Amino acid sequence: MQNQNISRRLASVGAALLVVLLTPLPGNAEPQVARAACDVPGKLIRLVHPLTRVSEKLKEGLPVTIVAIGSSSTAGAGASSPAATYPSRLAVELRREFPDRTIKVINRGIGGEEIADMLKRFDRAVVAAKPDLVLWQLGTNAVVRNHRLAGHSALIDEGLARIRAVGADVVLIDPQYAPKVIKKPDAERMVELIAATAKEQDVDLFPRFQLMRRWREHDHIAFDTFVSRDGLHMNDWSYACMAKGLGQAIAEAVNRPVVSAKTSVHVGR
Length: 269
Description:
Structural class: alpha/beta
């Protein structure tokens, strides 16, 4: 009987350890805790336009280069290691989606940058890599610093023109839905500005803001599950979930049939 009681106690302790696993991590990285299920509904994350350049390269069996440019949430602030950043996790997801193809994801994120800062290094950080796809994460720092939004659309247009000049596909990534972002009066306006610019320029948008809002408002997940202690940056769980959704969105856009007007057939009169 005593042995049975001891076994039950050990089982209870083991179950408790599975619920919350605390692991010491360097710097400002977050401890790994039990997380909710990753919710990335296809209808929400679907890219409007097919990724034709990437699709062509993959069909020809050629290697694909993806450049992720942005600020701290591209660089990986809040992640426990470089392997836990969204570009690193995306590379893992794309290997699953395309196991027999070579796809390289280059991280060109620098914390604290705004759109104008990124444009200053576009030639060496983006163009020099000869990308087939550019993932451009932008907008958060201007919102957090209460900078005026006037002129941002023109700056985005300039960046898109430079990406298109090298023939690459492009996906814009809007700000994160985090306490220190959403409390700012211009947070929603920045999200709307980026979406409107993407629509006007006929480029794809990955709606990170709406995806993370879904986790909070629809799935009722606590902020500390997907936001770091600083209330601003993402963490290992959210970077991985974001990468999962982005990987699925890229795979769908690459494999999507492209309907051409030339294929139309007129029968009779």
